[in-house]
Amino acid sequence: MRRGWGTAAALAAALGLAAAPAHAAGIELLGDQALDGRLHELTLRTDALDAPTRVRVLLPAGYDAAPQARYPVLYLLHGGNGTFVDWTLQGGAEAATAGLPLIVVMPDAGRGGWYTDWYAAGINGQRPRWETYHVKQLIPFVDRTFRTRAGRSGRAIAGLSMGGFGAMSYAARHPDRFVAAASWSGAVDTNQPPGIAHALDLIGGLDWGAPGSLFGLRETQEIRWRGHNPWDLAGNLRGLVLSIRTGNGRPGGAFGGGPDALETIVHPMGVALHQRLDGYGIAHVFDDYGPGAHAWAYWNRDLKQDLPAIMAAFGRPAPTRVDYRTIEPEYRVYGWHVRVNRDVSEFSTLARASRAGFVLTGSGDAQVDTPPVYRPGRAVRVRVGDVVQRVRAGTRGRLRISVSLGPSNTIQEYRPGPRTTRRLEVAITPAR
Predict the structure, then answer these.
(1) pLDDT exceeds cutoff 60 at 424
(2) How far apart are CA 89 and CA 36, in angstroms?
(3) Which residues of 85-116 are buried (b: 16+ CB within 10 A; e: fewer)?
(4) Where is 271: in which H helix or E strand?
(5) Please, what is the average pLDDT of the chain?
(6) Strand 285-288 relative to strand 422-430: parallel, antiparallel, unpaired?
(7) Per residue, what are the HEC states of 283-331?
(8) What span, in angstroms and rounded, lies between the C-alpha atoms of 160 and 295?
(9) pLDDT digits (tens, 9 = 90+) for 288-332
(10) Do the strands 336-341 and 365-369 form a parallel or antiparallel pair, or are they unpaired?
């Protein structure tokens, strides 16, 4: 069965939806094709990429017959040197999800795009912004176009190899977007083994990336590598349902293969992230299944094994306490909005954040807007370090609190030279 709608309005009508804008938030639907009763292939134009891109979408059986039903979404990411068709042509995604009330979205990410906004233009002058496309544009587009359970509690992400990195990196950088994340044979710690950064740059070359295109040269931009690395951001994953599955590349696995150099490389990465999560006391599944290759038979099994936990995760509430570490000077997470005025790239941390206060670590001057959880117009008592002040909630119930973390560092983190950071506790109590 093949069918083309051609416009967003026609697609919406065919799927029983209100018409979605043809072009909104930097993304435009160019065309689509129904490949079978469940599988659709959309062609999109986005200002984050230099050329149109495609995405496959698996709808649940009976989608058209139940126009009032809404469904959670699993974003399923492909690996290096792969494409958006892999999970349906090789990964068995359609059979694995048959009968599940689930929408599966399988976007392209380039053969070596590494699920990031590239730091520099590649050899052909292109500078793709994959993270912007996937997180800021594609997710809202999917929620506008299909009958999803929009919001964190209705959204999960998983992937293999490079896509395992992407799934955990996106989940750690945007934990308020996903309720579950899974990595299968994933490159989830780019700090190891030695020289791995240069190997990843070579994979980026599959998309005409020059050394340093992805995150910058490791020698000068280690902070950017770490700012996207799941191991360094593991504490952000608290509150998500997590799974890490990996083999060790040796012969003798259930589906054959091995010795396998790629699985041998990613295995210690999975072990490292598992140990890091254990150190934070963050619950997760870790399946080190021993002998096994970097191959589709294992990833198909991984998908089938994790689907029950992913389905059970949908609907779980967000954590009541926020811990978030990032290199971004401005960020929004779980309703918190933090802006840090500083001169260089470095990590800053928002910890133990709740309506009772928070701890902020870093350098420079920060402005923190709380979530809208206070009575509009009400004054509250705010203690920033040793200084007590009264702050009145705005019309939307947010507090705006200024926090001085001392003079900004002038040397980028992980570069040689002296650096200092300050940790300030902020307590919020009702004013008398």
Answers:
(1) yes
(2) 13
(3) bbbbeebbbbebbeebbbbbbbbbbbbbbbbb
(4) helix 261-280
(5) 93
(6) unpaired
(7) CCEEEECCCCCCCHHHHHHHHHHHHHHHHHHCCCCCCCCEEEEECCCEE
(8) 10
(9) 999 999 999 999 999 999 999 999 999 999 999 999 999 999 999
(10) antiparallel
Q: Which residues of 325-352 are buried (b: 16+ CB within 10 A; e: fewer)?
A: bbbebebebbebebebebebbbbbbbbe
Overall average pLDDT of the 169-187 stretch: 98
List, as one string, the DSSP characters of 405-432: --SPPSS-TTSSS----EEEEEEEEE--
Given this model, what pLDDT does residue 197 score?
A: 87
SS3 373: coil
Q: Please state the φ and ψ torsions of residue 205, each to the nearest 5 degrees.
A: -65, -20
Q: Token pair of 337, please?
A: 């909005």
Which burial class, exposed, middle or buried, applies to 48 when counting CB atoms under 10 A from its CB (0-12, 13-18, 19+)?
buried
pLDDT in tens, 114-173: 999 999 998 888 899 999 999 999 999 999 999 999 999 999 999 999 999 999 999 999
* DSSP tally for the chain: helices H, then strands E: 10, 20
CA distances from 128 to 115, 209, 407 (A): 10, 10, 34
**Whole-angstrom distance, CA of residue 155 vs CA of residue 310:** 9
CA gap 322, 174 in Å, rounded: 12
As a whole number of angstroms, the distance between CA 207 and CA 197 comes to 16
Determine the Cα–Cα distance for residues 259 and 268; give it in Å rounded to an integer: 15
Give the number of residues written for the chain: 432
Hey, what amino acid is at 105? V
DSSP 70-114: -B-EEEEE--TT--TTHHHHTS-HHHHTTT-S-EEEEE--TTT-T
C-alpha atoms less than 13 angstroms from C-alpha of 253 in its C-beta half-sphere = 26
